[in-house]
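User
New here, help please:
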Amino acid sequence: MLLLPLALLLAPDQAWALQSHGATESIYVHQLAHLFYSAALGYLFWDVGRNAFPGKGWRYLQIFCVLMILWNLVAFSGHWLGFHIADSDIIHPSGYFSSQITGPLSVIKLIYFSATLDHLLSVPALFFLFLSLRSLYRSSDAAEKK
């Protein structure tokens, strides 16, 4: 039962950080989704701070918001820069985990390549969301037991 998930975890076929989109309009919708998600997270961050909710859980939620806004900016930039580099600018000689930038180096290539590391923001963000939810649950549970 656990063999298939373990096999998929240890030997993934491809795990692209920046996904490609089909028709031109689909990337526009996807980019707008990044902007709207960032705006929603910005409002949530502002509203939590404005109401001055007490407790660590709310601070963790604000950290989650900041990290996810940064993730959206990185992903948005990566998608946008994907139109300004050729397919041959990034090569994968031994699969996804061995990506290399082909020369000559440019700022656009370096930023695009860095944008593929967006998981360095999204994973910690989700960890802070977990901490937030756990803290809020524990504080509400403690309040109910009183």
Notes: Strands lie at 90-91, 100-101.
